[in-house]
Amino acid sequence: MTNPIESARKALLDAGEIGDGDVDRLLGRLTSKQIDTGELFFQVSRNESWSLEDGRVKDGAYHVDRGVGVRAVSGERTGFAYVNDIALPRLAEATDAARSIARSGGNAIAGPVSPGTPAPRYGAVDPLASAGETDKVALLSRIDSFARSLDPAVREVHVTVALNQDINLVVATDGTLSADVRPMARFSIEVIAERDGRRERGVSGGGGRIDAAWLFDTDAAEGYAREAVRAALVNLDAVDAPAGAMPVVLGPGWPGVLLHEAVGHGLEGDFNRKGTSAYAGRMGETVASTLCTVVDDATLADRRGSLTVDDEGTPGERTVLIEDGVLRGYMQDKMNARLMGVASTGNARRQSYAHLPMPRMTNTFLLAGESEPEEILASVDRGVYAVSFAGGQVDITNGQFVFSATEAYLIENGKVTAPIRGATLIGNGPDAMHRVSMVGNDLELDAGIGVCGKEGQGVPVGVGQPTLKIDELTVGGTAA
Amino acid sequence: MEAIDMAGLEGELKELVGRILGEAKRQGATAAEVSVTDDAGLAVKVRNRELETVEFTHDRGFGITVFDGQRKGSASTSDASEDAVQGTVRAALNIARFTEEDPCNGLAEAELMARELPELDLYHPWPLDVPEAERFALETEAAAFDHDARITNSEGAEVASHRSCSVYGNSHDFVEALQGTRHSVSVSVIAEEGSRMQNDYWYTMGRVADALDDHKAVGRRAAERAVARLGVRPVATGQYPVLFDPQMASSLIGHLIGAISGGALYRKASWLLDSLGKQVMPSSMSLVENPHLPRGIASTPFDGDGVATRAKAFVENGVVASYVLGNYAAKRLDMVTTGNAGGVFNLEVQTERKPASNLMREVGTGLMVTHLMGQGVNRVTGDYSRGASGIWIENGEPAHAVDEVTIAANLADVYRNIVAAGDDVDRRGTIHVGSLLVDGMTVAAS
Question: What is the pTM of this model?
Fold first, then answer.
């Protein structure tokens, strides 16, 4: 297997005719004023996407982004600049700009530390090269015909395949020398079904840190198409959603968006260091029902949110956030860890070299409990069963979170009955987590489609959970 | 930011666009369009009265779309070297070899290009250095802290200044540039009372630094807003009038524009299909676009297809008068582009405006929404259900803060049920509208 540092050196430094001596000189320049840490983040990201609509593969796009982010940290101060070509003169200017936050003096650079080679969590594959153009185009057409064949109500089909390879190299004054080659593939399908003048949408998709072989060698894409058509047809029969507080049962997998919003963001180190999170200063306290154990796990093989090393070169970890309802850990990058006197948990992530890293989630999920899913549904007299969501949002300061259902049903006398129109569910993170009264034995992770946004930066993430019951959540429908 | 020679930069980018178009032709494209941008900026953030982040941004990149007859391919890169130009054009043409023919593909007609460019007065550099930006930011945050003792923490105050030069060109021998600046001062603070915390923010933004709102007033406004969110009390689920504050009203109007936009219409992904000539709002309301507004934040002489922009109404006296179309969507709908590739450029909601202070009286009992959360807007069906917080109004007076509620209705009813508009028009963004009062939405609460 190729050493990622050698691959990254070749793709990033050799291409820009930058030698080891140049990198050392840049780090020296960064530390010629008093800073705590300084870092160079070299990156090249290649993206290719193909999309089909109206029965035609009408769009294809290729994008390459290459650059270097330079960061200097002094106490709680950060100086940042970047260049979007990899060439020495501009890199020296960016270095001077970044270190300008430091007041004076100089300090030393640590010798290179070898953190050992962390176990790779995904292969150093190139998804763009995993099939020829003809095959990619044929895949989209095959899925279009397949989706249309499933039901005469299917009117529009929109299919996209997006492939990405990201290579980065981190060199820092604390001695870090680290590299990662990250693949990403994503397939998505949207259908619009129409019956009796009513139109509804259904979406599905999947992917991960893998090449595109699973789309060509299996019938996974047909599965996504079937799922999107099914969701659209279900919604054609949907009735108005109820309004008000009631028990809510969330299905397994993607509804783990709940954990991401209600718990995850509030446990990111930066918000807790600054005291702006509803969870700040609550380490060791009971913040959820004792049925809840929530982890953030970057080490899962090939998952969308997985990281062999994070964007500061720290190996990805499995971090227990909440254990049996008790707050156990925050997610940290180096800066927030240092300021809070703990170790980084390998959660430093950045959208690209042109963005500052900060603590972010990887794959965040709630561990399985002991209830049978049927038993959970049977326990509800009148409530809502939600199985798919458009996404969610949280206000980390007051703890309020929402997530918007795209497929949900009424529960009446323990039975799942009519589908309901999309409704937003709203609650307060700590309150909602205390009201988790049953946790299923059917833990699932999502199919690999999530994007998390924070301070304008998007990064791929995974979520997951078993079926679970929240005794009371506000359902934002229109029916009395 | 240091002063730079914008005329020189513009010349350099125009030359680059010409070179890329030439390369596309050389490699066999039947037509092509190119857009190159060079943006640079400085953002200085302070938090809790200390400097926190100094960020220098500078992005240059180009994107090309090539046509090989009726086939299309696109490619883009952050690298403008000679090798990258050739490689990027090759990548786009390679894609065009594999995509399928689409009769709607191609450039907009030559006669639609913006041949005369109005002076829009968009470029006003702010000679701002880091110490000065830091001082402004510190004063902004201090104004928030000093305004109310319940402001106990801060998420920071930021002063930012950006300049941008973008050049668009296509095979109609059209190559034009647009220069502009954008400056802002923003602050986000936390108010605390008992064990409850609430955050809120405020900002000022514009093309001209001298025309920004007073930064200390921005700080005070953020503090007022955060404090107003304290003292939350529960409300009962039911049907109520909902007053959208100007920022929230702007998002509401944005959903209407989205529903009459070409992409949603030709994909049949809109609840307003075939809506031309149909009444969608009260007859007292019009949505008028003014792309040539001097110093306007969204002003532009040409759209993303190079097509001349022009003033027009999308909704006139409550009736849909025009869709929002770029060239491709227009062709798909068998219509003509409205010069809106890239969206709407300065939209004004024209209607009878009442003093904003009177609108609470019109509400009687209901909710004033100051924050909305989540993705609960279904563009296909118009179903609208979003998380909300704001101020509860009783007997025409503000009573207490509300959070953790949802507001829901179908958008078709929401716009028809707008019963009043305020004179508190927010002109910072693309959509200029004051408060809007909507009758009869479902407020769901715990």
Answer: 0.95
